[in-house]
């Protein structure tokens, strides 16, 4: 028996540990190498953890992600020269989705940008953070300061009972309930300063919580002491985000794709679509005007056999696309996938076939999210 | 009936010239929740080391290798509706397929239970 495929990243040379490493091991997490770190892929089992998150609340350690703070005179103009974001419409403390693009409009990373009082807080992907820092440093003027907040851990508490569990242990100038989806603020959890935003990567209501690394284990323990909460591994994080239709960088997003074919045009804010002026703008605006040959879509498969990243999509004998993510949906009870397919074949309901080791699995183009979002708006 | 194990975590139980093949409890615990099993058809010929069977977990698809050569006589039909049997009962009710051995001498290279347990301990 051997694993033919795996969702984990390629093995790096030196695997680093995160602030919660010992805590995960003590809780029975099965540790794997991911994005250069040892991280828990599961505790009791992916499906049980997946369902627990959908029904109650799950705590995810996402401390591998890069937390950056960018400030200095002229920081707004400097950031707008790099990101396709419109900072004039970005109110304080609300995270907004954006992207780092290369000069061809290819996606280098997707990220969250939040306006703090004295600058901008960015959360970028773990596997790409070092390249992101280099890219930003290269393109930001010298007078702009970029700080990598390496002494900050990042947790995500996700699920329909996340709010009641977290509110119980959180104090602040406002109650936690003052936050709606994509709003954030400074709070205290058991006396520890915590930056909390109502956001996440599961499609459920929930929060992302930045705390000092040295307090992370105590805070994680306290959150998991709430009866609604269990720790959740990377495996369920992946199946949850796939059901929510949320792309994963390095799989569904890469420099081979632009915000246009990735169907993430909302990351290019309205003013920037007409004005341009960000790295890769000419290519993005051209794609926008002319369209792209392919587009990212969702596929629902019949039966129970899953198709994975790299599987080819066919309309009859004609290859019309390739899967970038795929797996069994615990909520729906059948496999689902994301793929880039030719636009002529991308219409909702189009019946296609996916080649899995020479076997053709029937599939249908399905709108995403596969499982409805339940954000607290 | 004698039972043999491979380094790839298959087991085969032999009764005369018939072998019943499955994956070990250690293997299922490593794979996690199994959602689908692609089984070989009766009558198909397999060579030792072929992968006539694929076990799909939430995480990944994994090949199951034939521990010996032979002709498949039967697959475990119960797994079509209940693939999680492989998780819950890997070394009995969660068997995968049966085959008629074409070269029983191939069993000589496999491990017995004690040797396999020792092998797993070293992983």
Search tags:
heterodimer, A: 377 residues, alpha+beta, Gyrase A, domain 2, Elongation Factor Tu (Ef-tu), domain 3, 7-stranded mixed β-sheet, 6-stranded antiparallel barrel, 9 helices, B: 123 residues, OB fold (Dihydrolipoamide Acetyltransferase, E2P), 6-stranded antiparallel β-sheet, 3-stranded antiparallel β-sheet, globular
Task: Provide structural commentary.
The complex is a heterodimer of chains A (377) and B (123). Chain A is an alpha+beta fold. Chain A has helices spanning 21-26, 46-55, 75-82, 129-139, 162-167, 216-224, 234-243, 270-275, 281-290, and strands at 2-3, 30-34, 37-42, 57-61, 66-71, 96-101, 107-116, 119-124, 145-148, 152-158, 170-172, 184-189, 192-197, 206-212, 229-231, 294-301, 312-315, 318-329, 334-342, 351-356, 359-366. Chain A is globular and about 60 Å long. Chain A starts with a strand and ends in an 11-residue tail after the last strand. Chain B has one domain (3-101): RNA polymerase II/Efflux pump adaptor protein, barrel-sandwich hybrid domain (OB fold (Dihydrolipoamide Acetyltransferase, E2P), Beta Barrel). Chain B has 4 helices and 9 strands, in the order βββαβββββααβα. Chain B has helices spanning 25-31, 78-81, 85-88, 113-121, and strands spanning 3-5, 10-15, 18-23, 34-38, 45-46, 53-57, 61-64, 70-75, 97-101. The longest helix of chain B has 9 residues, at 113-121. Chain B starts with a strand and ends with a helix.
CATH topology of chain B: OB fold (Dihydrolipoamide Acetyltransferase, E2P)
Radius of gyration of chain B in whole Å, from Cα?
13 Å
**Can you count the beta strands of chain B?**
9
How does the overall form of chain B come out from the CA principal axes?
Answer: globular
Cross-sheet strand order for the largest sheet of chain B: 1-2-3-9-8-5
């Amino acid at each position: 028996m051997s694993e033919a495929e795996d969702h984990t990243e390629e093995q790096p040379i030196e695997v680093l540990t995160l602030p919660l490493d010992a805590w995960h091991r003590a809780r029975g997490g099965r540790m794997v190498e991911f994005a250069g770190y040892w991280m828990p892929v599961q505790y009791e089992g992916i499906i049980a953890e997946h369902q627990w998150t959908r029904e109650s609340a799950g705590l995810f350690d996402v401390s591998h992600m890069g937390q950056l703070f960018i400030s200095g005179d002229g920081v707004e103009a400097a950031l707008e020269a790099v990101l396709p974001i419109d900072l004039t419409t970005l109110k304080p403390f609300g995270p907004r989705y954006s992207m780092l693009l290369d000069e061809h409009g290819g996606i280098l990373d997707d990220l969250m940008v939040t306006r703090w009082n004295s600058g901008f807080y960015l959360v970028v992907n773990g596997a790409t953070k070092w390249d992101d820092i280099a890219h930003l440093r290269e393109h930001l003027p010298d007078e702009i300061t970029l700080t990598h907040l390496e002494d900050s851990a990042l947790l995500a508490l996700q699920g329909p009972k996340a709010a009641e569990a977290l509110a119980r242990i959180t104090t602040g100038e406002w109650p936690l309930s003052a936050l709606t989806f994509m709003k954030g603020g400074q709070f205290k959890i058991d006396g520890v300063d915590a930056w909390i935003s109502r956001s996440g990567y599961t499609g459920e209501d929930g929060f992302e919580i930045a705390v000092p690394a040295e307090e992370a284990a105590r805070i994680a323990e306290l959150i998991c002491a709430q009866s609604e909460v269990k720790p959740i591994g990377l495996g369920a994080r992946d199946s949850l985000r796939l059901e929510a239709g949320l792309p994963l960088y390095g799989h569904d997003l890469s420099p081979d794709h632009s915000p246009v074919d990735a169907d993430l045009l909302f990351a290019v804010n309205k003013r920037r679509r007409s004005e341009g002026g960000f790295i890769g703008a000419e290519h993005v605006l051209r794609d926008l005007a002319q369209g792209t040959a392919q587009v990212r879509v969702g596929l629902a498969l019949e039966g129970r056999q899953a198709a994975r990243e790299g599987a080819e999509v066919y309309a009859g004998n004609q290859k019309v696309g390739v899967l970038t993510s795929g797996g069994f949906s615990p909520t729906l009870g059948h496999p689902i996938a994301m793929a880039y397919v030719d636009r002529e074949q991308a219409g909702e309901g189009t019946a296609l076939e996916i080649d899995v080791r020479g076997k053709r699995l029937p599939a249908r183009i399905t709108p995403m999210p596969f499982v409805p979002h339940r954000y607290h708006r | 009936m004698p039972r043999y194990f491979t380094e790839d975590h298959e087991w085969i139980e032999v009764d005369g010239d018939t072998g019943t093949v499955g994956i070990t409890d250690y293997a299922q615990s490593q794979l996690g929740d199994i959602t689908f099993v692609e089984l070989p058809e009766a009558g198909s010929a397999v060579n030792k080391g072929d992968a006539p069977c694929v076990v799909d977990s939430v995480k990944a698809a994994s090949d199951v290798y034939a521990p010996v050569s032979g002709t498949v006589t039967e697959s475990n039909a119960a797994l079509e509706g209940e693939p999680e049997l492989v998780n819950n009962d890997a070394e009995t009710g969660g068997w995968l397929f049966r085959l008629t051995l074409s070269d029983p001498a191939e069993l000589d290279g496999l491990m017995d239970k004690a040797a396999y347990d020792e092998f797993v301990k070293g992983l």
